[in-house]
Amino acid sequence: MIAIIGAGPAGLAAAVTAAKKGEKVILIDSSTRLGGQYWRHLPSNWKQKRLPYFAEAQELFDQVLSSPLITWYSNAHVWQAEKKNEIFYLYVVKNGVEEVITAQKVILATGAYDRSLPFPGWTGPGVMTPGAAQAMLKTHGVLVGKKIVIAGTGPFLLPVATGLASAGAEIVALLEANKQWRWVFNVHGLLLNPSKIREGVYYLKKLRSLGISIQYGSTVTSFEAGIATIGKKEIACDVVAVGWGFVPELSLAGILGAKLSVQKDGTVVVDVDRNQETSIQGLFAAGESTGIGGSVLAIAEGEIAAGKGNRVTRWRAQVFAKGLQRVYPVSSGWLSSLNSEVTLCRCEEVKVSDIQSAIDELGAQDGRSAKLLTRAGMGLCQGRVCGRNVSEVVACHLSREVPDRERIASASRPLAGPISLGELGDGLGKKF
Amino acid sequence: MSANKNFDAIVIGAGIVGASSALALTNAGLRVLVLDRGAVASGTTGAGEGNILVSDKEPGPELTLALRSRDLWFELREDVGDSFELEAKGGVVVSRGDDRQLQEFADKQRFAGVDVRVVGDEELHELEPHLTRGVNSGILYPQDAQCQPMLAAAQFLKIVRQRGGEVRTSANVTNIFSAMGKVTGIETSVGKFSTPIVVNATGTWAGDIAKLAGTFLPIAPRKGFILVTAPMPQIINHKVYDSDYVANVASGEADLQTSTVVEGTRSGTILIGASRERIGFDGSMNIDVLRRLAAQATSLFPILRDVQLLRAYRGFRPYAPDHLPVIGEDSLISGLWHSAGHEGAGIGLAPGSARLIADQIIGAEPFMDPTPFSPGRFQAGAA
Distance between CA A111 and CA A7 in Å, rounded? Predict the structure, then answer.
C-alpha cells in the first residue's frame, strides 16, 4: 500500500496516478475537504467564473472519490512516523484516537505555509497573512475587513486581492515589494509555460476591472491604530495582509531522516532525485516541500512520485518556479525596519532587544542558543512562524550569514502535528 | 610550550557545572578561562528540567552535597541576581500502593537533615487539587526547587566575564599538556593557553577529555526524554513524582525505565519526565517511551488528558558506574580536576560541586569530606 500525506494538488495527483496503476492508496489529510490549502475548496459557481485553474481540481476530486483503490482518510493527521525493517509506520490521530498506518511507500505532499516577517505592529489585531485572509473567506465565508491593505511579494497576492475585492472588501492598497521589470528574469519560464501568461493576464484584467492597481517596490513598514505606514504615506485600513512567499512544511521529512537542503534564498526543502524519491528509500516527496513551485509543478511531481508522470512538464514548471524566485526575492530590507521593541516570536513574546541581549550579554551565538536563552520559537507554533526570522536576526546582529545546518535544524521539529497526552497515553486504537 | 595566554584556571565545558565552577573560582580570586566546543549550555544542561532536588536522594554523601548545593543556589541568586527563574516550589512524592517504603525512606532523610512532611489525603489534594483521587498520601519536600538551567549557566558566565574571566565558545579542546604529572596547558582550535589548573566539566563527554589528558574516567550517557505540553494556566503547583522515580534514579539497570515527574514551569508549559535508558548516544525518538510517559502523567493528573503535547526532547545524562558524581583532582595528573558524572542531578549539584573543587584548589577546608567523589576510585590500575 502507498500512503500519501496531504490532499493538495501534489497528493491528489499522486493518489490518482497510483490508483490508475492498480495500487492501493491511503490518502491522509487533516482537512475535511479535498484540495489542500491551494484548492481550499471550490466556489460553487467556479465554472461560470471561468477560474483558470479549478477545472483540473474538480477532475482530480472526482477521480479520488470514485476510485475503489483510494481510501481518503480525512480529518486525520500524522503526528509521528518511523521506518523499521523497510516498512513505514505512520502514527495518525483521527477523532481523538491514535492509530498506526503501515505502508511500503510513502509520498509526502505536505505543502507549505505563508511566510511572515516581523515589522512594527505586526502582532497587533488586524495583521494577518494573505493565506489566512483567503482561508477565512473561502472556508468560513468571513470577510476579514472592509478596508484591506495587501502587501508582501509573489504572485499569490493577486488572487487574494481579487478574491477579497470580489467579496466586497475595499483593497486600499496592493503592494508588491519587488519591481515589475524583474520579470525579465523569468522570460524563459513564461515562454515555456504559456498558461502562466494567460493566468497573469486574467488576474491583471480582473484587478483592473475591480479598480485595483498594483504599487510596485513598496511595502507596509508599520501598522498602528488602524494606520498603515507605506514609505512616507499613511493609509487608514482595518486589515493588513502581508505575505512573503511560502515556507515548505518539512516536519515529517525531517522526522523520517530525509536529507534536507538549503536553496539560494534560504528556503529549506527536502532533497529528491529524478523520481521524486528522497534520501530514504521508499519515501517520496512532491509539491511545495521539494521547493516552492505552484500547482502545475506539484501535480507533475505528484504523478512522477506515484510512478508515471511527464518529466517535460515538470521541467518546464521547474524552470518557471526558479525564475519566480528571482522575480520575487525577499531582500534583507525587513531587518532594517525592525527596532529593538519589535516582537520576533509572538507565542513567547520575545522582542528583538531580548535576542540582542542574549547575544551581547549571555553569549548566544546561533539560533539555537538564542532560542534556549529567550524562549523564542518555543511556544505554540514551535518556531514555524519565527524560527527562520530569529536565525536571520541573530546572524545580522553577529554580521554573518545563517549557517545551512541552522536553517535545516529550524525547519525540523520532533512532532509533525498535535496530539493530546490522553491520545498518546491511550496507545494505538487500531491498526491498518 | 608557546602559549598566547595564561590563566589561573581553565574550565572545559560551559554547561551548568562548568559555569558554576568558573564562577566559584572567579569569586575565589582566580583568572579563569571557560571553553566549550559548542555554545553556552548546548549539551545536557540545555536538555534539562532544572531540577534542584533533595527528595530523590538517600542519606549519604550525595544528599549532603545536595543539601549544601541547594542553599548555594539561593546564595547565588543574591550574588548574580534573580535572573534564572529560581523557585522553591517544593516537591511532592506520591505512592499508589503500600506507602510504608516511602515513609521509611523519608524518615531516614529527615534524620539526615531533609525537611520532610508527611501529608494525608485532604492536605495532599489541597496542595495539588488536580491530582487523581486514586492517590491519598504523599510526602512534601519543601526544599525541592527549580531553575531555568540554560539561563543560569549563561548568567553565571556573564558574571565571570564581568569579573575578569573569559569565555570562548566554539572552541574545541585538542590536547591537554602535562609535565612531570602536572598540568601545564591546553591546546584548542582557537589557540594554546597555559595554566596550572584544568577543570573537566564536560559531563557526558568527560571521559573523552580525561583520555586527551592521558587519564581515565568511566562516564557514559543515560538517555532521557521529556515531554513538554502547550502552555496553560498554572494547574500543578509542585514537582510531583511517582515513588518509582526514586527507585529508578538509584537503579543500575540498562533497559528502559519510566517513572512520572510532572511539574509546571513559569512559562506555563508542563514538563513530564522521566525516562532512563542506557543505549549510548542514540538520538532517535522512541515513541513507546513518549507513550509511557504520557500514560503515567495522565493517570496522576487526569486533567492533562486533553492537553496538547507541544514537543518532546531528549538529553544524555552523564553517569558513573556507582551513581556518584566524580568531583576532585585526578589521581594520575595533578592540576587536572574533574566535576562530572552528576547523572540527572547536575543542575542541583552544580554549585556544591563547584564549591567543593574551589575550596580544595585554594587550600580552604572543604565543607564536606570529598573522598567519596574522588576520581581515584576508578583510576586505580587504569594508567
Answer: 9
